[in-house]
Amino acid sequence: MPRILVVDDDPMVCMAIEIYLERHSFQVTIADGGEAGLRALEGVAFDLMIVDIFMPHMRGFESIRIFHERAPSVPLIAMSGYAFANLDSPAPDFLRMALELGATRCLRKPFAPVALLTVINECLEEAQSRFTSVVQLR
Amino acid sequence: MAMNAERTGAALGTGNVLQGSPSAEASQADIFLKDVFLKDVFLKDVFLAQRMAIVGQLTGGVVHDFNNILTVIAGTIEILAEAVAGQPELETVAGLN
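ok -> structure tokens follow
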């Protein structure tokens, strides 16, 4: 059963994701912020991390960078509900920037649970195939 | 004219602005008044930009919260839809989202 760490400062988002994923045979640990998420990373080996961009006590993309640095081999899905009022303005694309900082995939809130499941499965399959190819090289 | 301009200059704290011939005085006064006008326009633009930035931040925050709520709603509807699978009437309701 794959272990997933969900880090989001919104408890309702955490809970919804937790219940949905547990119904689909994932073992889920939720953390209500960056610090709690990092503490959870210390004790347990996760197969995947889902981390919100922009959380309290974390400056900007710090969360993505730190989580990726702590567990570089664990796929990281960045999610964000932040949006600009004027989509035509040359605003920075936070999700693209998250990819550059180490996120494997990005999800823009609101997302459908099916989309989350698809992205999770893609990440896990990619990680599995990478692991298999490394083992074969040895 | 020169007197009026001098008064204007004095009122704005520039007692030595108006000197020389009448035409030079008028020219200097024009430049001075234009500078004051441009400064005023510039400050108004700055204030407007600051106000718009604040409105943008507030809007972004509201949108962020709204998107979080929509994510929760979409997730819970999906969970409930799975729970009512096999009950056609409730499945129809769950499929409305």
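Chain A touches chain B at residues 10, 12-13, 15-17, 19-20, 23, 54, 81-86, 108-114 (CB under 8 Å).
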